[in-house]
Amino acid sequence: MNNFTFQNPVKLIFGKGSIAKLAKEIPADKKIMVTFGGGSVKKNGVYDQVVAALKGRDFVEFWGIEPNPKIETLRKAIAQGKAEKVDFLLSVGGGSVLDGTKLIAAGIPYDGDAWELVLDEDKIGEVVPFGDVMTLPATGSEMNAGAVISNLATQEKFAFHHSFPQFSILDPEATFSLPPFQVACGIADTFVHVMEQYLTVTGVSPLMDRWAEGILQTLIEIAPKIRANQHDYDDGTERLHRHGRAAGLGDPHDRTRTDGPARRYARTDPRGRTPGPDERNARTEEGKNPAIRRAGVRYP
C-alpha cells in the first residue's frame, strides 16, 4: 500500500429540512454570492428555502451555470463577484453548479484570466470560502476538491483541484421534483464514477474494492425502485444521495475527473447521459477483468 495523507474537511448536513440550517454555517458579516443553474430550483421550492434561510443577509445572485460549466459563463460570475466585493460563495444546484463555483472561488481573488488556473493549479492563491446546497446526487462534488471546466473557444475540458466546500447541505426531498431523465443521469453518473475508480488500479486495496462493489450492487438494486417512485424517501433518493456522495471518495489514482473529461471535450450533455471513455473501454474488457466479474456488471 502506498503512503498517503487523508483529510476531508467538508461538514455534511443531511436530511429533511436541512436547508433551514444554512444561515448558521455562514458568518453574518459575509457578502454572499449565490450561484445557480438554469432555474429548476425556483420550481421545486429550493430557491424559496434558501432565500428564507438567508433573510437579513447581504447576498447577490448569479444564474446560468450550465452542465459541464463553461469558462465563458464563469468569467461573468467572477467579474460580478469582484465588483460586488463578494467574500463567500454558496452553490445551489447539482455538481456542475458546484464545479463552476469552485473556479469562481479561485478566480475572484486572481488578477489574471481564470482559465489560467485550470491549466496551472500552481497559480491558485487565495480562495473565497464556499459551501453548497446539493439538489442532484451524482458526481460527489460536494465531498471533494475537484471540478471539471469546459472552454468553448478551444473545445477543451479539463479538471482542476484546489479546495473543499466548507459545508454541504443535502436534503433528499430537494430531488423529488427532478425529471425522471435527470434522475436516471444521476444514477448513471454515480455508477460510472465508482466504476472508473474501481477499474483504475485493481487488486491493491481489497477493502476499497469491496466498498465499490457494494455501491455498484446497491445502485443496480435501487435504480428500479427509484424509477417506480422517486418520492420514496427511504428506498429511493436518500440512498441515492449517500451513493452519490460516496462517488466523490475513491482511489488516489482515479482518472474520473482528470483524463476522462479532457478526452470528452466541451460536450454540454448532462453528466451520465453518455458512457464515458473508461466505461466503453471496460465494456471491451468484460470477461477479462476480474474486477468487472466480481462487481456483477454486465454490459449489453
Features:
300 residues, alpha/beta, six-stranded parallel sheet, two-stranded antiparallel sheet, 10 helices, 8 strands, 13% strand, globular
The strands making up the biggest β-sheet line up spatially as 1-8-5-4-2-3
Helicity level: 25-40%
Give a quick account of the main beta sheet: strands, pairing sense, barrel closure. 6 strands, parallel
Classify the beta-strand content into a percent band. 5-15%
Count of runs of 4 or more consecutive helical residues: 10
Shape: globular
Distance between the termini: 35 Å
Radius of gyration: 19 Å
Give the helix/strand class: alpha/beta
Q: Could you give the count of β-strands?
A: 8
Descriptive overview:
With 300 residues, this protein is of the alpha/beta class. The protein has helices spanning 46-53, 71-83, 95-107, 115-119, 180-200, 206-228, 233-246, 259-264, 277-285, 290-295; strands at residues 11-14, 32-35, 59-62, 88-93, 130-134, 146-151, 156-161, 167-170. It has a 6-stranded parallel sheet, sandwiched between helices. The chain has a two-stranded antiparallel ribbon with strand order 6-7. It is globular and about 50 Å long. It starts with 10 loop residues before the first strand and ends in a 5-residue tail after the last helix. Mean pLDDT is 81; it is low at 251-268 and 275-288.
